Amino acid sequence: MSDDRPYAVLDIDATLSDTSKRIHFVEKKPKDWDSFFEHAKEDAVLEEGLAVATTLAADHVIVYLTGRPERLRRDTEKWLKDNGFPEGKVYMRGNTDRRPSMLMKLGRLKRLAEQRPVAVLVDDDAKVVAAAQKAGYTVMRADWGLDPETQPALFEAQESEGRT
C-alpha cells in the first residue's frame, strides 16, 4: 500500500517548543547564538503545537522544517521523540546558511511539493507565513508561542540574521 497522504510541514522554535527561557541570549548585543541553541534541548513543549502536530499526523506525512542549524540534529530529533511528537523527517538549516528563514523555508517547501502535495505549513514567523501564502501554500499561523510585539529579537533574527 502506498502512502499518498500530503505533507504537513511544522516549524519547531516558538511553534512546537517554548523558546521563552532562552530568548534572552539573543536580546542582548552581541547575540549569544551558541548559548541560544545549546539550551534548545531544554525547551518546554507548547501544548497547542503538540496538539496540532498530533492531529495533523492522522491524515498527513509530518515534516519538521526548522531554522535550527544542522549541528543540533541529534538534540532536536531526541527532543521531538522524548516529547511525544509524531514521527517525521527533520529538515534543518545548513550550519553556515544565513539566508532569511523565509527564503530557506520556501526553497524547502518547493522541493517537498515536487514529491507530494504540501497541505499545510504551521509556522510562527509572520514573514514566512506571508511568503508561503503568496506562493500558494495553505498556512496556519502558530500564534500560541512568542509574541512578536513583546519578543522581537527572535523574529528579527529569523529574517535579518538567518539564524533560526
How would you explain this protein's 3D organization?
This protein is α/β, with parallel strands linked by helices and 164 residues long. The chain has one domain (7-161): 3-Layer(aba) Sandwich (Rossmann fold), CATH 3.40.50. It has seven helices and seven strands; from the N terminus they run ββααβαβαβαβαβα. It is globular, with a radius of gyration of 15 Å. The model has no long low-confidence stretch (mean pLDDT 89).
**What structural category characterises the helix and strand content?**
alpha/beta
Q: Beta-strand percentage?
A: 15-25%
Low-pLDDT sequence parts: none
Number of domains: 1
- Helical fraction: 25-40%
> Any idea of the CATH class?
Alpha Beta
Overall residue-averaged pLDDT value = 89
What do we call the CATH homologous superfamily? HAD superfamily/HAD-like
The general outline is: globular
Biggest sheet record: 5 strands, parallel
Give a quick summary of the entry.
By secondary structure, the protein is α/β, with parallel strands linked by helices. The protein is built from 7 helices and 7 strands, in the order ββααβαβαβαβαβα. α5 crosses α6 (126-134).
Primary descriptors:
164 residues; alpha/beta; Rossmann fold; globular; Putative acid phosphatase of HAD superfamily subfamily IIIB; HAD_PNKP; HAD_sf; HAD-like_sf
List the helices and strands and how they pair.
Blueprint: E1 7-10, E2 17-18, H1 24-27, H2 33-38, E3 44-45, H3 47-57, E4 61-69, H4 73-82, E5 89-93, H5 101-113, E6 118-123, H6 126-134, E7 139-141, H7 152-161
Parallel strand pairs: 1-4, 1-6, 4-5, 6-7
Antiparallel strand pairs: 2-3
